[in-house]
């Protein structure tokens, strides 16, 4: 056999194994990935086929418990993984950012659920548990925190500026916004985690929600910039934020794929590809393409 032909599978295997998922510190995300996988199995099997619950009576009580439990567990595991890595790699310097993001995101969510600004008029169901002031689940600000850190760090890794950068703030806000392109269709259109009073054209989501996400994200990234996160986040393992973002994208993206909602899937993946693939990965892809065509 031609040695080049033997090299092609090895090149592809190396790209997969050493690519976005299988990197150092990814083990911290294993519990989250397991919960997401079980959630996707439950969604594909029972949520998408309610008749199965009647066919298998034993499954109904399990589904009723696991449906809200796994959604809450997903957020708790994600924030635990993020805090674990920040604590070990960045000491305590991230705590100011944690407080700032929690307060800012909670304020934005309370405004949205009370007067419809900046996202539009909506309300949360009881699936995510205890609500602050009876409006916003306590877990929601935590999700803003960990996805803001991951989005900011993804952009920061490609930024050469050590000074205050509005460009970094803006681009990070857009990376965070991309998450919602699949999150909202999955959690509002396919499942009732939150409900819009005036549904819009993007799988029930109004355009105002995208505006609200960008505005909220901009202020969160601005806090990270002011608190010099571009300096202390350099202590994170190189691929952790990319792995983390993908692990959290897994559930809503998988739900959209199962339900054949191709538009949000293609939009999110198309927008993220230049961000989640590093320069090293692009070189490997280019090399693999040359070898495959040889």
Structure, briefly:
The chain has 294 residues and is mostly helical.
Characterise the protein shown here.
With 294 residues, the chain is mostly helical. The protein folds into 2 domains: 1-20 and 278-294, no CATH class; 34-276, no CATH class. Helix content is 70%, strand content 3%. It contains 12 helices and 4 strands, in the order αααααβββααβααααα. It has helices at 3-17, 30-47, 51-55, 59-90, 95-115, 139-156, 166-190, 207-226, 229-232, 240-258, 262-276, 279-293; strands at 122-124, 131-132, 136-137, 194-196. Strands 1-4 form a two-stranded antiparallel ribbon. The longest helix is centred in the N-terminal third of the chain and has 32 residues, at 59-90. It is globular, with a radius of gyration of 20 Å. Mean pLDDT is 87; it is low at 1-22.
């Amino acid at each position: 056999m031609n040695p080049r032909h033997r090299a092609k599978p090895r090149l592809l295997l190396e790209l997969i194994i050493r690519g976005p998922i299988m990197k150092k510190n990814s083990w911290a995300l294993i519990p989250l990935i397991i919960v997401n996988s079980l959630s996707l199995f439950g969604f594909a099997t029972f949520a998408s086929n309610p008749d199965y619950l009647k066919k298998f009576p034993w499954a109904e009580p399990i589904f009723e418990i696991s449906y809200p439990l796994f959604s809450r567990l997903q957020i708790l595991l994600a924030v635990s993984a993020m805090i674990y890595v920040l604590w070990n790699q960045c000491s305590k310097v991230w705590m100011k950012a944690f407080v700032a993001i929690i307060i800012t995101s909670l304020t934005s969510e309370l405004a949205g659920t009370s007067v419809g600004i900046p996202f539009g008029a909506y309300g949360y169901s009881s699936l995510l548990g205890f609500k602050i002031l009876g409006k916003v689940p306590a877990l929601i600000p935590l999700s803003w925190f960990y996805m803001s850190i991951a989005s900011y760090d993804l952009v920061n890794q490609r930024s050469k500026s050590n000074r205050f950068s509005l460009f970094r703030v803006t681009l990070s806000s857009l990376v965070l916004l991309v998450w919602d392109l699949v999150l909202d269709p999955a959690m509002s259109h396919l499942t009732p985690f939150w409900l819009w009073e005036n549904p819009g054209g993007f799988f029930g989501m109004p355009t105002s929600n995208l505006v609200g996400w960008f505005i909220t994200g901009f202020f969160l990234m601005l806090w990270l910039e002011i608190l010099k996160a571009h300096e202390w986040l350099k202590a994170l393992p190189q691929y952790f934020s990319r792995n983390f973002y993908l692990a959290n994208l897994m559930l809503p993206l998988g739900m959209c794929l199962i339900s054949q909602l191709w538009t949000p899937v293609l939009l999110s993946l198309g927008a993220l590809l230049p961000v989640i693939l590093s320069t090293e990965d692009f070189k490997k892809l280019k090399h693999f393409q040359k070898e495959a065509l040889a």
